[in-house]
Structure formats: structure tokens, C-alpha cells
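[Meeting: bench + compute handoff]

Bench side (C.D.) handed over the final construct sequence. Compute side (W.E.) agreed to return the predicted structure before the next meeting so the bench team could plan truncations. Sequence as handed over:
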Amino acid sequence: MKQICIRKETAILVLMAAFLGGYVAGPALPWMKEADVPPGARPSETNEPAIRHYAEALVHIERDAMFSTPADSPQEIVASSLRAYLGQKDPYSDFLTKEEYAKFMEASRGEQTGIGMDIEKRRNGDILCYPIPNGPAAQAGVKPGEQLLSLDGVATRGKSLPAIVSLAAGRQGVPIVAELENSSGNRRLVSIIRARFSAQPVSEYTHRSSRIIRLASFTPNTRQELDYLVSKQRQHDYIIIDLRGCGGGDFYAAVDSAMLFLAKGEEIVSVSGRSGSQDYSATISHVPPAQRIFLWQDEFTASAAEIFIAALTENDRGISVGTATAGKGTRQDIIKLQDGAALILTTGYLLTPRGVEFDGSGLRPMHQVEGDAPDEDDFLSKTAMLTG
């Protein structure tokens, strides 16, 4: 049995060639790592009477049940029962068949080919879209925060993010139809053509003469790119980092990026699991930027972005402005089983440097931006009030 630790607090991934933002491991994605299987963890020897009882029930269902059909193989029944149990217990846990897991892993080996979209699974089961700027999904008209209801007619509700990855994986140039629903409940179909594209997790824009760093997602390159843009603004009195609509990304990238603004030894995040807690702190000996750091956030700011914001604000290195964040503070592991299938299990909760668990509740801003749908003008005006 092979276990892949996803030290990433969310179930968010980039639907590119790999469809990911840090949800798999191994050689395909360097920021993931494998974990040792706990001693004695051999499924075939776990609670053997119960397993024999389950196997006996499968035989009777296949042979005697009137509803059973030739398509209802024991493998299909096992997969259905595992999905039902996991789905009842946790919205982020799931079971992937051998074929689904193989397709998911195959998709992870691609490079920047796909529909160009982050997705986030909310605790209520909603799948939210975060199209990457200028990517295929954005060009097709997908809007941030829209719900993804189906792909090519297959419903996404009840499926894990890797399962959705396997649904959407495909060749360059081949379209896929996404069914979307906006906040008003209006539904529409959008055809997205898979294509090669260049994602920019970190960029810079100007609004009302203010230079603003836009952080769209956390990837292995985020820290380097963020460091470069921050260094360009060292002569300014303050720095604005816009994390609105940032669905998260790679756990380690968020930790590394936070270190740019923290002194050595300052806490970043803790992961609490059944085997205990693991703490992550800044390890770099350097002088952090002296300017005030303003962090813009909204209800679509999630997971890795929440780690980044909490690390800066709770160490008095940043000032958060906006609305409450999404509240995605869990970690999922992918555990490959002996026959090639895989389990996806929630194995940990994230805690801020002050020990606050934010899953389901989000992070409240230090300074609220009022209004139903505040825009750049509202955020910049609020920031200007704080800098005056």
C-alpha cells in the first residue's frame, strides 16, 4: 500500500494538463512527497471476520438479489459502498477505482495543457471555479465563484477533486462542456477547448496609480516571483498583495512564500492529525521587508492563501482587508491500494500560528470592506484610509 501525503490544506487543484495545484505526489509534482505506511497496516489482515462477512454478503448480492445485473460486479459494489461510506463521513474523502486513479495520475504528468482552472470543493459539496487569467476557461467565459455542476453531462456533486480531474482529462484541442451555475441560480453550458497556456500565479497591475501584486495561486515558483515583485517596491511606504479569488494551491509554496515576510522562528501553520501535530515555522535568516503589507481577501480566498494571510497577520507582519475568507483548512492524503485503486482521506486540520482552526469558518479581515460586491475601488479606498 502506497500513501501520498498531501500536505495541502485544501482540496483544490489546477485544471491544467495536470489539472492540479498540488494534489498528487511522486516524480510528477516535486512539492508532494510520499509517507511511510504505518507499521502493520495491511488491509487484508485488518478485522478479518468483518472482511469475510462482507465477502459473503457480496456473493449473495451477486447471485441472489433481483436488482443485481451482470454489470454489478463485486468490484463495482465495493467501490459504491466505499464511496457511500466516505461521502457520508466527510465531503472531501473518496474512493477511486484503478482506472480512475490511473487517469488521474496520467493527467498529472502533463505540462500546462488543459482548461486552465482551479476548483475548490466546499464543505456543502459545491464545486467552485477559479479560472486562471487568460487560460482556456477564462477565455470561454467562466467566472470566478461559479459552481461547476457537470462535465460532458457527468455530475460533479459527490465526487472528489481527483475524480473530477479524471473526468476532465483529455487531449489538447478537444472541447469539454461544463455546466455552470452562478450565485443567482442561473445555469448555462460553456464549451472549453483544452489548450496549452502559460499560467501566471504571480503578477502585477496598476489601479489608480497604485501598484498591486496579484497572487492567483501558490505553485513552486510563487516564492521566487513574489520575492522579485516585492523587491521592486522596497522604496514604497506599503505593499498591497491581492489574494481575492485565490483558491489556494500548494501547501509548501504557501509556507515558503510566507517566509519572505517573517523572521526566523516565527510560526506559519500547524497540521493537527490523529498522530499528533506538526508545526511549520520560518527557517530563513534575513531581514523581512520593512513596509506595511496589506492583504486583500474575499469569500473566494481559500486554503493555501488562508495559510499565507494568517501567517502574516498573526505575526503582526500584515494587515488584512476585505471580507471573510472561504474557510478551507483540511489536508487530504491519497493512499494507493494494492490493486491500483486509491483512497482519498482527510487526515488533518490546519491551525493558524495562534492555534485557531479555521476550517468551515474562514478568516475575518482586520478591516472590513463593506458592500455587496466590493471592487478594486472599494478595496483601494479602504487601504488608503489605513495608510493616511
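W.E. noted at the follow-up: Residues 2-37 have pLDDT under 50 and may be disordered. C.D. will use this when planning the next construct.
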